[in-house]
Design goal:
By secondary structure, the chain is mainly alpha-helical. The chain has one domain (5-144). The chain is 73% helix and 7% strand. The chain has a three-stranded antiparallel sheet with strand order 1-2-3. Helix 1 (5-34) runs antiparallel to helix 2 (41-67) and helix 1 (5-34) crosses helix 5 (116-144). The chain starts with a helix and ends with a helix.
C-alpha cells in the first residue's frame, strides 16, 4: 500500500487528539451546563478543538517526510510538538488579549494567575506525555495504516 502516504500519516496523527478532545469537550459541557459553572469555558476550548488535531496530523506528515532521510525517534519528534503549540497558543492569546504577562507569571482571562515555576513543571510533564503518546500510540497507528 504505497498510495497517499501523507494522507495516511495525517489521518493517523489526528486520531489521538481527536478522541482525547471528545472527552475533554464532554467534561467541559458537563461543568458548564450541568454544574452551572460561570466560567467562559467556550473561549478556552476553541483553539484546542480547531488547531491541535490538525497540528498533530501535519506533525506526523513532517515526521514521515523527515524519516526518509534518516531514522529519528518518533517519541522525540512528538515531544517537540508542545514547544510549537505553546508558542502558537501564547502568540494567539497575546494578540487576542487573553494572556497578560506579569513579573511573576501569566494571567489568563484577567482572572487566572499561573506563576512561571508551575508553568515550567507543567510544561515538562506535557512534553513527557507527548513523548510517550507519540512513541506508543501514534507509532502504533502509523503501523496500522502502513507507514511505520
Amino acid at each position: 500500500m504505497n498510495t497517499h502516504p501523507y494522507v495516511r500519516a495525517y489521518m493517523a496523527g489526528i486520531v489521538v487528539p481527536t478522541v482525547f478532545l471528545i472527552f475533554v469537550l464532554s467534561a467541559f459541557i458537563t461543568i458548564r451546563l450541568v454544574l452551572q459553572y460561570p466560567a467562559p469555558i467556550e473561549r478556552v476550548i476553541v483553539f484546542p478543538m480547531a488547531a491541535v488535531p490538525n497540528l498533530w496530523g501535519f506533525w506526523n506528515m513532517l515526521y514521515l517526510r523527515l524519516r526518509r532521510g534518516r531514522h529519528a525517534s518518533i517519541g522525540v519528534h512528538g515531544g517537540m510538538l508542545p514547544f510549537l503549540l505553546a508558542l502558537f497558543s501564547f502568540a494567539i492569546g497575546s494578540i487576542l488579549g487573553v494572556v497578560a504577562i506579569t513579573s511573576h507569571g501569566l494571567v489568563y482571562f484577567g482572572a487566572l494567575y499561573v506563576n512561571y515555576g508551575l508553568m515550567a513543571v507543567g510544561f515538562c510533564v506535557v512534553v513527557g506525555i507527548y513523548y510517550l503518546v507519540w512513541k506508543y500510540a501514534v507509532q502504533f497507528l502509523n503501523g496500522v495504516v502502513g507507514i511505520a
